Protein: Zf-RVT domain-containing protein
Amino acid sequence: ISKGSLLVRYQGIPLIASKLSHMECKVLVKKLMRRTNSWLSNSLSFGGRLQLLASVLFSIQVFWCSTFLLPVAVTKECDIILRSFLWHWVGSSKKGGKVAWSVVCSRKAEGGLGIKDTRSWNRAAIMKIGWDICEEIPCWRNILHSRKFLIHKVLYEVKDGNSFSLWFDPWYLGASIFDKHGMTVIHDSGLPREVKISSFISEGRWEPLFLWELIDISNTSAIIPLSAGSDMIHWMKKGGMFSLHEARKAFIPHNPIVQWSNVVWFPRRIPNHSFCLWLTFKGAHRTLDKLHRWGVVQLVLCTFGCGQEESIDHLFFACLFTARI
Structure:
């Protein structure tokens, strides 16, 4: 078998019975490399590269990201390819970019470009599998991967108690009894592991637990309100609805909203002009004053011959020549 190839594939993805390895993801990495190498990124404008990133290159990852929890090394490798395509070209020896990748991947309203980094998108897509199972939509066993992400983002609302495990579901003030007290309390109680919460609800009220090991649990659960109907699971809060957009927000840092985002990203914008303006607000243009500080050039006078030192503020707001353009 050649390096990176697999014996069995279904709809383009490997059929495996163990944890996905880096080698088995080579197909995804090669697809990204092949597509980016087919474009002359150094001859494309930044606006054009951004549009290709957000549409074509992102779509290549969607199927894999929504099917497997990818190894961290693979997600990093995918992000390196995307970052190189945006700032340089794939295969370039140059590292970094005009703006940090973490900033690029933040929301446009927060001063970023809205690019979805592979890691957070992958986690959000896998979380959707867990949510589909909570909603009783048939899915396959990747719930095991999504559970650890999903469990802290959902709200369990106890009603009749027939659907939730007494021990293992996070109905008990946002956590499960097992998480809070461990296996010891289950053994000491003498109750089966499969017992449901409904065993301790009668006529819409909590039944007191007289077992010594469960007194604290009984006192705490008594303050949890019960209502008529079947148990429900909500996203984050009562009435909350799951979406991939909201799920991804749980995995990315939140930055302050910037006041200038609507100036840059308006409906009928010219993509390259918007990208140039975005670089201006981020202070990322390599003007002569920066190049001088880095030891690249000696002269810092404005390129347009106005006699002033060239900086971003001067070039875009104070230069007499650019003001007439």
